[in-house]
From TrEMBL:
Encoding gene (name): rplD
Superkingdom, taxonomy of origin: Bacteria
InterPro entries cross-referenced by the UniProt entry: Ribosomal_uL4 (IPR002136), Ribosomal_uL4-like (IPR013005), Ribosomal_uL4_dom_sf (IPR023574)
Gene Ontology BP terms: translation
NCBIfam families registered for this protein in UniProt: rplD_bact
Family: Belongs to the universal ribosomal protein uL4 family.
Job description of the protein: Forms part of the polypeptide exit tunnel.
The protein's name: Large ribosomal subunit protein uL4
Amino acid sequence: MELSVLNIKGEDTGRKVTLSEAVFGLEPNEHAMYLDVKQYLANQRQGTHKSKERAEVAGSTKKIKKQKGTGGARAGSIKSPLFVGGGRVFGPKPRDYSFKLNKKLKRTARLSALSLLARNNQVALVEAFSLDAPKTSEFKGILNNLQSTGKTLLVLPAVDKNIVLSGRNLPKVKISTASDINTYDLLNTQKLLLVEDSLNVLDNLFSTK
């Protein structure tokens, strides 16, 4: 698959780059992508939820009425889950939601996501650029020139502080380096905007393994 290289004005530079079949030409593995996204979201959970059970709520432990003869069900402490203000039955407790996935599966998931974007023509190439200072309006103008008005994932070959600071306040823009891309971000974007030099990083990251 060939892509035209654009400049920051959105103009065709006349150069074309062939995407690696080993990175962008695979048959997407939907189950691998599902597991990788599931792990990513699970790892975001703090797991600090907690409710009080009957042994933890404040209240008297005195038996509130006699066992028999009232015509109603027997009742013990006011802290019973049956009463208002009582403890909760089987409530949530702090726990760790993270789980392990094999490296090969995570690699397959990322390659599948990249291939899926390429298959759907959601990948664009832009030549290397930089900003003299953090400037959100200037960065937004570049995205408009590249017709990236929806959810956009910009992939840089390496961290560029000015670009990161310029785009971090834009709600539909995510900026990542080629070595740090993940399946969730790839599937959660409408357009994958690759800086030209990031292709070499992706090729070295995936093609040699």
